[in-house]
Sequence to fold (135 residues):
Amino acid sequence: MIDALVGGKLFKAAEERRSSSGKTFVSANVRAADGEGEGLFVNVVAFSDSAKAALLALDDGDSVSLAGTLKIGTYQARDGSVRPSVSMVAQKVLMAYHVARKRKAAAEAGERKPGQAEMPRGGRDPLDDSLDDLA
Fold:
């Protein structure tokens, strides 16, 4: 297995399912672009409560990033060509909502937390702009 971070868009809404043993899990498909810009579908399954809830909160077409274990294989398509098969067990789900929520919480707190580094002179955090494109 490979520890991986996959980013893409949710293809259809995620579905909650129940295993034969009665445990629930969520399955989803994420369309991610490969290095050449081609779309690649990643079959995703989530077992942790936080990952299940996050996937179920998303709609078709929402952007999402997933961290988890990746399995890569191949399958033979109907036309006889061999294509890649990518599956992931997602442990963490990150979406743009998380970034906005963290910023709002930090602004409301308005003070430095114990153990947090001091703000550079000028009161501007140089890393603050690094997540602007996610919000």
Observations:
- The mean pLDDT is 82.
- The helical segments are 49-57, 96-109.
- The CA atoms of residues 5 and 67 lie 5 Å apart.
- Residues 2-111 form a domain with the OB fold (Dihydrolipoamide Acetyltransferase, E2P) fold (CATH 2.40.50.140).
